[in-house]
Structure formats: C-alpha cells, structure tokens
Design a protein that fits this description.
Elements: H1 2-29, E1 35-41, E2 44-51, E3 68-69, H2 75-87, H3 113-118, H4 134-143, H5 159-173, H6 177-186, E4 195-196, E5 226-228, H7 230-241, H8 248-254, E6 268-272, E7 275-285, E8 288-295, E9 300-306, H9 313-324, H10 336-344, H11 349-362, H12 373-384, H13 388-401, H14 406-419, H15 422-435, H16 440-450
Antiparallel strand pairs: 1-2, 1-9, 3-5, 4-5, 6-7, 7-8, 8-9
Helix pairs in contact: 1-9, 2-5, 2-6, 11-13, 12-13, 13-14, 14-15, 15-16
Domain Beta-lactamase-related: 32-314
Pfam family, one: TPR_2
Protein name: Serine hydrolase
C-alpha cells in the first residue's frame, strides 16, 4: 500500500513538471519568455530550467548559473538592512532623515524612515535624464525645497526612497552599502554567487534586450543593485521565510504596505502570528523583470527571472500555481502594452479604446482581454506620461468591463486625484473601498479628501 502511494505521488509530481515545462516552452516559442525559472513545492524541486538566450545576439543559450538583475526586488536588501539596524538599537524607523543628514533642506525634518520603506515620503523621483551617479543624486536632494506631498498621506513608488535608505545604512555602519550587503546579508544567507552592481566584465551575467534588437545597459545611475542566480535567490527567500536575518516582527513591518496593491520593503505578504504565510514581490529594470512568490506553509516558492521583459510574469506564475494545485490553467498571452507601446503613446484615450476593441475582434485569444490588468497597465502608462485625461478615459472603460473589482476603481480614483478633480476622486475611492474594505490607501485618501 505504501509503495503504491509513493508511486502515485511520484508520477503525479512528474506530470506537474511536464505540464509546467510544456507551458513554459510554448510561452518561449511565442517570444514571450527568455529567462530562468525555479519551482519548489513541498520543499522539493518540481521544475528548474533556463530557456532563451544570454543577450540580444541570441547566439548563446542561458544556463542555470546565469545572474539576472531583479529590479525592485533588490530593494529588499536595504529594507532588511534597515530593520537589522533597528533591532540592534542603532535607529528607529520613526526617526526622521534629518537625524542622519542634518545638512539636507527642511524637507528631511518631515520624512521618516518608515515613509521611505512604504514609499510615502513625498520625495520626488530620481532625475534619471541628468543623474549620472550617486553624487549627482545627492546634489539634487540638497537643492530640493519642496516635497511632492505631505509624508504619510500618499503613495508614490520611486527610487529616491531606496537611495536614502542605502545612505542611512552607510551613515550608521560606516561601511559602503555594497560592502554592508556582502558582509551582513549575502554571507549570512549563504549566497555565494550574487554580485552587486555588475558590469560588462562580470561573468555569467544575462543582458536584457527587446524583441526589436535593443540591448539594455548593466550599470545604473545610482548604485546598490544585487544581481542573483536562481540558487542564491532561493537562499535569500529562505532566509526571509525562516527569519535568519530579521525577526518576525521586523518582517511584518516589511510586508505591510501603505495600501492594497502597493509595494513595501519586501513587496507584500501575509503574517499569521510569527509565521510568514505568503510573500510576493516583483521587479523590473530596463528589459529585466523578476518575480518571487513564496508560500512557506506549503514549502512552495516560484522564482521567475527574465532578460526579455514581456510584462507577463504574473500570468506565468498564475499558470504555475494552478498546475501545482491541480487546476486548469491559462496559457500566458501577449501584452498589448509591450507589443504596441510606441503606437499607444501617440493615441488619445478614445483612440486607445478603438485600438483595443479592434485588436480584441481580430486576436481574441492572443492578448489578455479577460484580465483587468491589461487596460490598467495602459492607463498607468498614460498617467506616467502625464496624459491624465486619456488615462481617465481608458480607466473609466475598464470599470465597465470589471465592475466588481475594487482595484480598477482605485486606479481611476488615482487618475482623478492626480488631475486635481477631488469630487470624482472621492467618488471612485469610495466605490473601491466598498468593493474592497481592506483598501487602507483608499481609506486614507477618503479621509484626506473629506477634509
């Protein structure tokens, strides 16, 4: 009886691996994934693979030993570093930035370390077009006279929050940030292949590229970016899940964002007492994109790293999770934004909708028309380009397609808020909160607008 049961589990496990492999290879053949993948379940490897190419020439295939930039997930290292220093009594996350850098302008008296961790500081983003290094960015912050908003009242994801965390770590420890990461984080976590700020001479470093033949740079304007292999990425996730570096209490702070669908120090997650039961964090940079999804109670971890960003890693993860759970899965589809960004950038909101409907009629099964994220993604792209009226048209239509989603009304509320239309912003945030009572960010903004 025992032997039969063991055989059944083994065969079932093989079936899952084969199904995942079939899905991944099909996604690769469609030009929708180049990268490295690790799937753990029950604490065992279900699937591990490298598929695609190391750079834009497409001559050298990837192998599992390659390192990838992981975008915003690399911000976990400074966040964990901050909490380590709090546990050591060397700082409090309620401390203001001015405590460590009194030479900064008056804005530093208002911004706390917690604001930096939750991206609620109001500090404007890095001036990417002119900043060539850390010194340039410090000079810009020294000139800054006004925050974008009152700290703690609004969420705005940008890299100056991360930059200041790294500088605070340096100030307290007396170590360059990269040295701190190597000695206090990578080594204790058992990570032997990770590198910080790789360059063109770094061996086994995947280079990001587009399907149009453009290769992205490895060196970024501000420093402190950790690049990892699959094995080291998994070791880092295990260090977090097993509280090897920081306590459950500190971890809870780093997985609790300002509001739903917002990022925090570790992205987002769920704690049950002193146990981490879920952890999810994504990152993108140039043409890299990465995702880690951990379910510790299941012994399950999914890691995806790509050097050919197609904005579909969540779809790939959803397929993998369903396969692991023995459920039907959807084959990942193409991203409208990824395929047509240049064309969409030239269109008005109404023209975007015409384009969307025409594409849906001609290619109903090729793109993610059944997902709210498709138009939401386009809407945020328009918002980022300061085309607020066009973004509102697109996001308004998305609420008619997905009227039970609190997230789509939250996005529309944000667009109206950015435009300065407080009445319509309030209306949509209230709709969002009614559909999703856990939306803390909506509660905060409703309170602000109610004043």
């Amino acid at each position: 009886m025992f032997s039969f049961l063991l055989l059944t589990i083994t065969v079932f496990g093989q079936t899952k691996a084969v199904t995942i492999d079939t899905m991944i290879r099909r996604t690769n053949r469609m030009g929708l994934f180049s990268g490295n993948i690790l799937v753990m379940d029950g604490g065992k490897v279900v699937y591990k693979n490298a598929i695609g190419f190391t750079n834009v020439s497409k001559k050298e295939p990837l192998i599992e030993d390659y390192r990838f930039h992981i975008g915003s997930i690399a911000k976990e290292f400074n966040a964990v570093g901050i909490m380590m220093l709090q546990e050591q009594g060397k700082l409090s996350i309620d401390d203001k930035v001015s405590k460590f850098f009194p030479e900064l302008p008056a804005w530093a008296n208002k911004v706390s370390i917690k604001n930096l961790l939750q991206y609620t500081s109001g500090i404007p983003d890095v001036k990417w077009k002119t900043v060539k290094g850390d010194a340039d960015n410090i000079a810009d912050l020294m000139k800054l006279q006004q925050l974008d908003f009152e700290p703690g009242t609004k969420y705005a994801y940008n890299n100056n929050n991360v930059f200041m965390q790294r500088r605070i770590i340096e100030k307290i420890t007396g170590l360059p940030f990269n040295k701190f990461v190597e000695e206090k984080l990578l080594k204790p976590a058992g990570m032997s292949t990770a590198v910080i700020d790789p360059d063109d001479n770094t061996p086994l470093m995947a280079k990001s590229y587009t399907n149009e033949g453009k290769q992205g740079p490895l060196i970024y304007p501000i420093t402190g970016w950790v690049a990892v292999t699959l094995d080291d990425f998994y070791k880092w996730e295990q260090a977090l899940e097993n509280f090897k570096l920081i306590s459950p209490a500190s971890t809870k702070i780093l997985v609790t964002p300002f509001g739903p669908d917002k990022q925090c120090g570790l992205g987002g997650g769920t704690m049950d007492g002193n146990k981490l039961v879920f952890h999810k964090h994504d990152g993108s940079s140039v043409y890299y994109q990465a995702l880690v999804v951990g379910s510790p109670l299941k012994g399950r971890t999914v890691i995806l790293m790509t050097n050919n960003r197609q904005n579909n890693i969540f779809d790939i993860d959803n397929a993998i999770q369903n396969i692991l759970d023995g459920k039907p899965y959807s084959q990942p589809k193409r991203s409208i934004l990824a395929d047509f960004q240049k064309q969409l950038d030239t269109l008005s909101g109404e023209q975007v909708l015409v384009f969307y409907k025409d594409l849906k009629a001609k290619h109903p099964n090729e793109y993610g028309f059944d997902s709210e994220s498709t138009l939401n993604e386009i809407g945020y792209s328009l918002m980022n380009a300061k085309k607020l009226d066009d973004a509102i048209v697109v996001l308004e239509y998305n609420t008619t397609l997905f009227p039970t989603s609190g997230n789509v009304f939250d996005s529309l509320g944000e667009a109206y808020y950015n435009k300065g239309d407080k009445a319509k912003a309030l209306l949509n945030y209230k709709r969002s909160l009614k559909l999703d009572p856990t939306n803390g960010a909506a509660k905060a903004i409703i309170a602000e607008l109610g004043k």
